[in-house]
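Hello,

Following up on my earlier ticket. Below are the two sequence lines again, exactly as submitted.
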Amino acid sequence: MKIKRWTDVPAQPAEGIEGVTVRWVIAEGDGAPHFAMRVFDVQPGAATPYHNHWWEHEVYVLDGEGVAVQEGGETPISAGSVILVEGDETHCFRNTGQDVLRFICLIPFKWLEGLAEKHANA
Amino acid sequence: MKIKRWTDVPAQPAEGIEGVTVRWVIAEGDGAPHFAMRVFDVQPGAATPYHNHWWEHEVYVLDGEGVAVQEGGETPISAGSVILVEGDETHCFRNTGQDVLRFICLIPFKWLEGLAEKHANA
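Thanks for your patience. The regenerated structure is below:
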């Protein structure tokens, strides 16, 4: 068992985006076999990149107010919001509030790429 | 993208344990391909089962105070604690506070059983 506080892990710039940091609180180096847990801080007015990728996100919002952006529009999110971003969906999260927007975001490890489709078609 | 609030999902008794409920906020039926997100509420004095299983837990504590129990002893946890319970580790979470102990707990789906070991040995 590995036990830490989320603040034990240093915040890093997230993909070079100003006003967004990430902490990899559970990563492959911790012995996690399938998926990673990260904690993002998005400062007021900032947003994560509007992009897509094969892997999904499972998100739980801890603090703050913002919007989840997808091709169809924007949806308000705040503490207690739960978001599933499916693989290949274009998305971002933007802070529309006065305080930090903080959320947990979990992603599968790269070795899982393509295995879920294979399993579904087996 | 699926967006909800954690309270949108009904709380169910967790494994028949008195004082413990679970909400499957992201499950296979939501289209999640690899892992599920659940939110547990453990009432004061109650605990999750002391058991083990092949799958890991990735836990983030939202509210309250308790202990993570393993064979080597107990470790205090509270809001902001992050816990990785590795596969086959015997564990439970007990509420030692006066208010609800609430945490997020993510687990891989059953179809992943054994694949991480195969991948590591490939």
